[in-house]
Specification:
Elements lengths: L2 H21 L4 H26 L21
Helix pairs in contact: 1-2
């Protein structure tokens, strides 16, 4: 995961929190709608960055660096 991926993830979370504070959802369905709206904000930002740079933002890289003798459990 690159720094830009982390920033977009933070944008999605912060946007979701702000929307949630403004709309004060009460049910699971309302909360899910707010979460999707927050993710949509970050998704639009990602697409805009990709259109301006001509490069994909999302990578397969892992931000966690593991020792060579350790394997990531999945």
């Amino acid at each position: 995961m690159t720094n830009l991926e982390l920033v977009l993830n933070m944008l999605a979370e912060a946007s979701t929190a702000e929307i949630s504070n403004a709309k004060e959802p009460k049910t699971f369905r309302e909360n899910r709608k707010v979460a999707r709206q927050g993710g949509h904000v970050a998704g639009k930002a990602r697409k805009e960055i990709e259109s301006k740079t001509g490069k994909k933002v999302i990578t397969k890289d892992s931000y966690i660096k593991l020792p060579h003798d350790k394997k990531l459990l999945r």
